[in-house]
């Protein structure tokens, strides 16, 4: 009993059936507490799932209602526009009737006689509003066309810029290739003007007709490709004065 440590309150029941072998019945309250937590957790998770389902259903219903609202709004706008158009037509007919009366034509004046001054004023305002609506729609359409053309112009300019950069890169490559071809042609044309030079390995001996040894720099005028033994390592360089510089390192 002295070696048992419990972190939470427990109920220990001792039953001595016999003095030699006492029995201990331990009932830990932590078990019931953890079980209640698990039950509560499961209930909360189920509640959250139900809330998510209701949220999705509400979102769908809201989407349907928004679409229905937009449709009805468009229908009302079209109906209002149609009403304005009919009122404008009526006002125009009224104006034509008045002009016909002024010119002395014999026409029935039922329309002008059946309208009061207030109704005529309302028709005039409807006519003005209809004109403003039509002009607004025309301006919006023109603005949309202008935006589309500006976007197309920007895309075209960007494409032209990319093509110009590509052409410049191709020109640079062509120029480099032409320079290489000119250098190769110059070397080939001048390669037969002097005899070939033989460089042999073996010590710092002088090359006949020069003051240089095989280990020193040797300048020759536009010679053919220098021939050397396999043990020699050569490096040729074409300078601005069309000279070839030869460096020979004798391998031991």
Automatic annotation (TrEMBL):
Keyword ATP-binding: no
Transmembrane segments: none
Coiled-coil ranges from the UniProt annotation: 120-187
Protein name (database record): Janus kinase and microtubule-interacting protein 3-like
Species: Pundamilia nyererei
One GO MF term attached to the UniProt entry: kinase binding
Keyword annotations of the record: Coiled coil
InterPro entries attached to this UniProt entry: JAKMIP (IPR024836)
